[in-house]
Amino acid sequence: AVALRDVRKVYGRRAAAVTALDGVTLDIDRGTFVAVMGPSGSGKSTLLQCAAGLDRPSAGEVFLDGVDLRRLSENELTMLRRERIGFVFQSFNLVPALSAELNVALPLRLAGRRPRRREVRDVLAAVGLAGRGRHRPAELSGGQQQRVAIARALVTRPAVLFADEPTGALDTRTGRDVLTLLRELVDVDGQTIVMVTHDPVAASYADRVAFLVDGRAAGELLDPDP
Amino acid sequence: AVALRDVRKVYGRRAAAVTALDGVTLDIDRGTFVAVMGPSGSGKSTLLQCAAGLDRPSAGEVFLDGVDLRRLSENELTMLRRERIGFVFQSFNLVPALSAELNVALPLRLAGRRPRRREVRDVLAAVGLAGRGRHRPAELSGGQQQRVAIARALVTRPAVLFADEPTGALDTRTGRDVLTLLRELVDVDGQTIVMVTHDPVAASYADRVAFLVDGRAAGELLDPDP
Ligand SMILES: Nc1ncnc2c1ncn2[C@@H]1O[C@H](COP(=O)(O)OP(=O)(O)OP(=O)(O)O)[C@@H](O)[C@H]1O
Ligand SMILES: Nc1ncnc2c1ncn2[C@@H]1O[C@H](COP(=O)(O)OP(=O)(O)OP(=O)(O)O)[C@@H](O)[C@H]1O
Ligand SMILES: [Mg+2]
Ligand SMILES: [Mg+2]
After folding, report:
1. Is some CB atom of chain B closer than 8 A to the CB atom of A32?
2. Closest CA to B1 of B146, B122, B159
3. What is d(CA A44, CA A21) in angstroms, rounded to the nearest whole number?
4. Distance of CA A184 to the CA centre of its chain
5. Does the beta-carbon distance from A172 to B198 stay under 8 Å?
6. CB neighbours of residue A103 within 10 Å
7. CA angle, A48 then A66 then A87, to 5°
8. What are phi and psi of A2, to 5 degrees?
């Protein structure tokens, strides 16, 4: 579903240049749940953004369901993302002025679909936020905001879900509810999930763990257990 | 150092009212390291903000080094915070337009002191960010931003440090470096630390863990181990 070939990403220029990705090759098959782990600053968020078409690599290729993202214009890339990708940002990126319900419904509207109240409420209930839909992000706790971001990424039933540390702000039990939901989406609905995480317990829900160190792939673990 | 007496906090009114704290009594002695744990939405951030004078309870009393915070005006509260408190926010709250160095130096300036380049760079190095001081928050990873927020809270050597999930965005090793630093500040400098965390490993660095459930104190653990 997702393939990266020798992807490089450099920020800044000359003396100020920072190499975030230093030649990463990674394959993610459809219907699998892959975790990406590595030290702070090792390039995980950058990797996820390049894989999801939210950022362009400095070099190398990214394929999403066989489509070479470099051949797409910005508009085509935007449409592809809206149709097929869900993204949970490390800092949530919720719209402050909109309620949780409207934040969750937004990707449906952007994809040209008409949100049904039922589907928005169902996904909020699935992350334990039933009854909080009318609240705006500032009126919710950190872990509640994170769960709104997760619900928003899931509501379009995307082919590929990219999740950047989706349980970072959650206590153990709430985190496990979310991970169980993600596992179910893979096992039952055949969804593909790429999840960055620092938490070995979260990684244990995945089929495979890819390690990133200093912007390079540094080994793998199949069928991880905590 | 910090005492809360039957503190209540209600957000909103009438039908929309949400009780974030439902009568919390908690004592934190000087020179101790206390962790606060509990489910997402249980009131931990609210508790920390009331204890640090960043928010006013709906009822109950908060004492900081014997001073009843309700007797202080907004200006007096602000000065007290600048003199004696460091706060690491759950969402960092860095100033986007300022470099990491300037973000870290800001509390010194607000406290009327003149920041020395050495002290700003030392604290950035202590959290593993030597050489990244010139970068702005948007040019740093999630875990790096969190560490800038930690450095900023420590630079004034506050009497009491309040930290809201300070290792949430950090990998295990970086998190341990930060926790070791916090432990040292308590053991060597006699600092008082109140840390909200979801991570049992982080909690194991504390002298004591206080549990919060549905806005109420729900038990304690002395000398926790992971
Ligand atoms: N302005 C507000 N209006 C309404 N409810 C609010 C507001 N601010 C916070 N709350 C609610 O108060 C409760 C406690 O929030 P708080 O942020 O203290 O939780 P928390 O324990 O820090 O959670 P987390 O672990 O997810 O960060 C939550 O149910 C939250 O939704
Ligand atoms: N705009 C930028 N300019 C300069 N450097 C940048 C920029 N954006 C990211 N970086 C750097 O690229 C590297 C990789 O960043 P990235 O956000 O991918 O790390 P990460 O693995 O997600 O870290 P974390 O676990 O802390 O979230 C880091 O060293 C970061 O500081
Ligand atoms: Mg990241
Ligand atoms: Mg919180």
Report:
1. no
2. B159
3. 9
4. 16
5. yes
6. 26
7. 30
8. -130, 130
Token pair 């970086």 in the structure block, residue: B174
| Spatial CA neighbour of B119 closest among B90, B88, B145, B156 | B156
Helix (H, G, I), strand (E, B), or coil: what is residue A34?
Answer: strand
Give the chain A residue whose CA is nearest to the CA of B168: A168
Of A144, A165, A171, the CB nearest to B169: A165
- What confidence score (pLDDT) does residue B206 get? 98
Chosen for mutation from A40, A48, A145, A209 (greatest number of chain B CBs closer than 10 Å) is A40
Name the residue facing B141 among A41, A139, A147 (closest C-beta).
A41
Amino acid sitting at position A101: E
| pLDDT value at residue A154 | 97
Residues facing A195 on adjacent strands:
A35, A163
Ligand number nearest to the C-alpha of B169: 2
Q: For residue B14, what are the CA distances in angstroms to A144, B10, B11, B56, B165?
A: 22, 10, 10, 19, 31
Q: Is the pLDDT of residue B226 over 80?
A: no
Cβ of residue A9 closer than 8 Å to a chain B Cβ? no
Please give the backbone phi and psi of residue A68, each rounded to the nearest 5 degrees, phi first. Answer: -80, 110
Tokens of B124: 């950035």
Mean pLDDT to the nearest integer, A140-145? 97
